[in-house]
Design a protein that fits this description.
A two-stranded parallel sheet has the order 1-2. It has one domain: Protein Binding, DinI Protein, Chain A (2-Layer Sandwich). By secondary structure, the protein is mainly α. It is built from 5 helices and 2 strands.
């Protein structure tokens, strides 16, 4: 192509793209907020907390035991025999390791279960958003995390949460 023809072609392409973009209906969603504010996630969060509460209480008891051992060692440094100090120190080290293992295990279990729940709910939310977009005649729905600016009227987050809760009622 010669230069004038190329310029004419590019101008037509830009104008065509601009007119297509002007006709595109766009929605914006805060997907993270949409998933986290569903009734399903709120219930799952409360269930997780209740499920792991006994382990958290066990960890708190271990922390109190460790504090008591430290206080005994500090208060009785000149009153305790070397054997008693060594015994308290061993008890403290054992409880510290036990607490660390419990903390790591609890964190791993909570993270794994939370990620499973979020993944499952995220998939359901994607389907809800797709259906909502079809109902509203939207051509594209963009996550807010990838958006620099948008008009608040384009935000479909609240509608998505309501649609999700309607489609997936908590039991």
């Amino acid at each position: 192509m010669r230069r004038p023809e190329l310029l004419r072609f590019l101008t037509i392409a830009v104008l065509a793209a601009g007119s297509l973009a002007a006709q595109t209906k766009v929605g914006v969603i805060n997907m993270q907020r949409a998933v986290l504010e569903t009734a399903e996630i709120k219930k799952a969060s409360a269930d997780l907390e209740a499920k792991y509460k006994p382990r958290q209480e066990e960890m708190q008891k271990l922390q109190k035991d460790l504090q008591a051992i430290q206080q005994q060692l500090q208060a009785g440094a000149d009153k305790l025999t070397p054997e008693a100090q060594a015994d308290l120190t061993r008890q403290g080290q054992f409880k510290q390791r036990q607490l660390q293992r419990l903390t790591e295990d609890l964190q791993a279990d909570v993270d794994r279960e939370r990620n499973e729940i979020l993944s499952r709910s995220g998939g359901k939310m994607a389907a809800v958003v797709q259906k909502l977009a079809e109902e509203k005649g939207l051509d594209v729905v963009i996550d807010i995390s990838n958006t620099v600016f948008f008009k608040p009227a384009l935000d479909v987050t609240a509608e998505a949460i309501a649609a999700f809760d309607k489609a997936h009622p908590v039991q």
